[in-house]
Amino acid sequence: MGFNVNYVPRENINAQLEHLQSKYVGTGHADTTKYEWVTNQHRDSYASYVSHPSLLSYFAIAENVSHARLRHEFLSKAVRPCGPPPPTEED
Hints:
single chain; mainly alpha; 4 helices; about 60% helix
């Protein structure tokens, strides 16, 4: 019976996860709603499209619009990518 070098205690994994969740908004937490999760995914996607020139060029050619127009559209969509938030019980 050998020693498992890949074993990490569960407490250590939970501590690492909590650290990541406090450091990065997009990783979510226990109280993250589906709307918040999807909104973060869409914003991350739009940020990636805008920040990678070759990807932006690909989309611009595919949609037959200028890079500046497409960049503007992506940044505008990133403000509220999934529409208005759903009503909450508190409202």
